[in-house]
Amino acid sequence: MAIKSEVSDAPEILNLENFLPYRLYRLADAVSREFSRIYKDSHGLTRPEWRTLSGLGQHGTMTATALGEQSAMHKTKVSRAVAELERRRWLVRSPDENDRRVEHLTLTKAGLAAYSEMVPLAKSFERELLARLGEEERAAIVSGVAALEAKLTLG
Amino acid sequence: MAIKSEVSDAPEILNLENFLPYRLYRLADAVSREFSRIYKDSHGLTRPEWRTLSGLGQHGTMTATALGEQSAMHKTKVSRAVAELERRRWLVRSPDENDRRVEHLTLTKAGLAAYSEMVPLAKSFERELLARLGEEERAAIVSGVAALEAKLTLG
DNA sequence: CCAAACTGGTTTCATTTGTAACCATCGAAA
DNA sequence: TTTCGATGGTTACAAATGAAACCAGTTTGG
Q1: How far is CA B144 from the centre of its chain?
Q2: Would the CA dihedral through B55, B59, B60, B62 be positive or negative?
Q3: pLDDT at A3 over 60
Q4: Spatial distance from the CA of A24 to the C1' of C8 (Å)
Q5: Would you call B106 helix, strand, or coil by DSSP?
Q6: Which nucleotide is nearest, taking the CA of residue A74 and each C1'?
Q7: What angle do CA B17, B18, B20 make, to 5 degrees?
Q8: Calculated CA dihedral for residues B42, B44, B48, B49, nearest 10 degrees
Q9: What is the predicted pLDDT for the residue at B10?
Q10: Buried-most residue among B57, B81, B93, B125 (CB within 10 A)?
């Protein structure tokens, strides 16, 4: 049997368990699922709501557009998350002086309280996640992610 | 101002852009989005459908349960993906001899053809993705992901 | 000054997803 | 053998998502 036919007869096979896009997605999904307990189980937030809360907690006041850029969310996700947090009275909107299309979003005391409560939990989640790894493994995942991020168009 | 009040007054802040669960998710999402062009744009497949095709292409014949385990999908996703691939006549079901609940799934010639067409594209996608990185960066992401996978309950 | 193009943000609609209930069959134990 | 709990797989329903249309309001170019 000629080599040429040998290599072209058998269909080329992809090993899914070893395929980086799949592994990355599955890993992120597992981590995200675990992490979601912090905002979902305790307060019934969705991920977009959590990110919105987190963005505002971090930056004080932002517009919806800025939120979308900071946390890599589509404008519709932001819009709905903001609406829900407003319904909970966790944030308020205030009109922009110069541009009447724009709204500035700010957490209320209640929103800030929820944020302050979750931040330590989030940090310890990350800490414990990384603590399961050895020193070089930790460095590997962090720098590996950073390297790929740098090469991609994110958000 | 006493140190104690200094540290407890300001709300602790989480830097989202630096938070591993967020970064991981955003990265996986971006990679997955780019990759999806291979199965979505050309054949209109969803991710579960692609994974199902991929699992069967790789293993020949599988049950729905096995597919779910191999590709980290919930049984409902598998069920719907299988139904769609069957509708396209890309796979067939055959009953199990001993257990009438079980179905064995196999790609048809058409399914296999689609699979064979996509595999090289998938491989070159991964290759080119990794080619954007330097040697150590490549090693870092691969071993970092592997390390985290090992510590988590996946799927 | 006015039309066209653009931008911030919301809504609508179709698709996808997750949860739970469900149906059929199987295996073990009484 | 009958019954009861697990298992393979599907379905129903509610919630989350994405794409595109949409509404204001703003800017730009003629």
Answers
A1: 17
A2: negative
A3: no
A4: 34
A5: strand
A6: D18
A7: 110
A8: -80
A9: 65
A10: B81
Question: How far apart are alpha carbons B139 and A143 in whole angstroms?
Answer: 10
List the single range of A3-12, A55-64, A135-144 with lowest mean pLDDT: A3-12
Q: What is the pTM of this model?
A: 0.92
Q: Which nucleotides of D are covered by protein (CB under 7 A)?
A: 7-12, 15-20, 24-27
Whether the beta carbon of A46 falls within 7 A of nucleic chain C: the reply is: no
**B16, A123: Cβ pair inside 8 Å?**
no
Identity (one letter) of the amino acid at B138?
Answer: R
- Report, as ranges of residue numbers, the positions in chain B whose pLDDT lies below 50: 1-3, 5-7
Work out the number of other CB atoms within 10 angstroms of the CB of residue A50: 25
Residues of B within 8 A of A141 (CB-CB) are: 20, 140-141, 144-145, 147-148
| Banded model confidence at residue A154, pLDDT cuts 50, 70, 90 | confident
8-state DSSP, A40 = I
Is B144 in contact with A130 (CB distance < 8 Å)?
no
Contact B75, B65 (CB under 8 A): yes
Contact residues, chain A, for B30 at CB < 8 Å: 152-155
pLDDT tens profile A28-83:
999 999 999 999 999 999 999 999 999 999 999 999 999 999 999 999 999 999 99
Chain C nucleotides close to protein (CB under 7 A) are 7-12, 16-20, 24-27
Q: Give the closest nucleotide to A104 (alpha carbon vs C1').
A: C8
Q: Which of B26, B115, B125 sits opposite A72 (nearest CB)?
A: B26
Count Cβ atoms below 10 Å from residue B136 Cβ, excluding itself: 12
Gyration radius from chain B CA atoms: 21
Instruction: Give me the residue label for tokens 């007054």.
Output: B9
Distance from CA of B119 to the nearest CA of A (A): 6
